[in-house]
Amino acid sequence: MDELIAKHISKTPGVCGGRACIAGHRIRVMDIVVWHQLRGYSAEEVCQMYPGINLADVYAALTYYFDNRKEIDDDFAAEEEIAKELMTRHPSKLPGKRSA
């Protein structure tokens, strides 16, 4: 990992499943991607959501994502599979709600 990115991003076994996170936090790179790329929040707004991080952390997370897109997309796919499995095993008891 590039030294500059490594200053902001860490992967620690046992922390968030070993997924890439903002260094010193349990905020995953994929969390930043969701807020910024998928939901359209600015980097500044993401920083306001997570007061312990700064703009450099957000941009490092985005850089990590674009440099390691397959890894992060695979993380998203794995979480989606887990969610589907849980919904299958534990369907909603609310009328009109269906399992995935």
Low-confidence stretches: none
H and E string = HEEHHHH
> For this entry, what is the oligomeric state of its chains?
single chain
Got a strand count?
2
Number of self-contained structural domains: 1
The side-by-side strand order for the widest beta sheet comes to 1-2
Q: What would CATH call the architecture?
A: Orthogonal Bundle
CATH class: Mainly Alpha
Helix content: 55-70%
> Which structural class do the helices and strands define?
mainly alpha
Major sheet: 2 strands, antiparallel
User: Tell me, what's the shape?
Assistant: globular
End-to-end gap: 37 Å
| CATH-defined superfamily | Winged helix-like DNA-binding domain superfamily/Winged helix DNA-binding domain
| CATH fold descriptor | Arc Repressor Mutant, subunit A
Q: What characteristics describe this protein?
A:
100 residues; mainly alpha; Arc Repressor Mutant, subunit A; two-stranded antiparallel ribbon; 5 helices; 57% helix; globular
Describe this structure in words.
The chain has 100 residues and is mainly alpha-helical. It has five helices and two strands; from the N terminus they run αββαααα. The protein has one domain (3-89): Winged helix-like DNA-binding domain superfamily/Winged helix DNA-binding domain (Arc Repressor Mutant, subunit A), CATH 1.10.10. α2 (29-38) crosses α4 (55-67) and α4 crosses α5. The model has no long low-confidence stretch (mean pLDDT 90).
How would you summarize this macromolecular structure in one to three sentences?
By secondary structure, this protein is mainly α. It is built from five helices and two strands, in the order αββαααα.
